[in-house]
Design brief:
It is a single chain. It contains no helices and 4 strands. The protein is largely without helices or strands. It has a single domain, classed as Pectate Lyase C-like (3 Solenoid). The protein has a two-stranded antiparallel ribbon. A two-stranded parallel ribbon has the order 3-4.
């Protein structure tokens, strides 16, 4: 336990990828908590306050974050497959490269969030506030549910079918004039 900036005691951990699978931290105040790389599969953070939390690269597979306040949280590269974030506040959160496949984000607030390169395949975003959200290079599929009248491609998201089965390399790996070796 430690005192955060507001003087509230919170559990610290996860610095070395600590395993906290199944932990129940619902309705707790955990602002500024550091759980980088932590194992948090099926953990319950429902209605917790986790403002400015560091959850980068954490495994939150099937975790419950219903109604959780994750304002300005760092969730970059987190694995959130099947996580329930219904009604969560993720305004101004960093979710770059997060895997939100099959996650429930119904009526969540993602205003001003950064979802660049996020995996949104099968995610349910019905009724979600996406105003000012950066979706550049994020991917979605035919199972992704968007808010009514929302056009993901107008906000930089790309259909997964454009990438499935394709050889995708970064610009740093690409050498002009050199073709990929298909035998490998």
């Amino acid at each position: 336990m430690f005192d955060n900036e507001s003087g509230i005691q919170v559990k610290a951990g996860g610095v070395d990828g600590e395993n906290r699978d199944g932990e129940d931290s619902s309705e707790q105040t955990m602002d500024y908590v550091v759980l980088k790389g932590a194992g948090l599969k099926e953990a319950d953070f429902s209605y917790a306050s986790m403002r400015h939390a560091i959850l980068a690269e954490a495994n939150l597979t099937e975790a419950s974050l219903v109604g959780t306040d994750l304002t300005c949280a760092d969730v970059r590269g987190a694995i959130m497959v099947g996580a329930n974030l219904k009604g969560a506040n993720l305004s101004a959160a960093m979710l770059n490269e997060a895997n939100l496949q099959d996650a429930t984000l119904r009526r969540a607030n993602l205003s001003g969030a950064d979802l660049q390169e996020a995996n949104l395949r099968g995610a349910n975003l019905k009724g979600t506030n996406l105003s000012g959200t950066d979706l550049r290079d994020s991917i979605y599929d035919e199972d992704t549910i968007w808010p009514k009248f929302f056009k993901p491609m107008d906000h930089g998201a790309s259909p997964a079918k454009w990438f499935d089965g394709a050889l995708i390399i970064s610009e740093e790996e690409w050498v002009p004039g050199i073709e990929a070796d298909e035998d490998n």
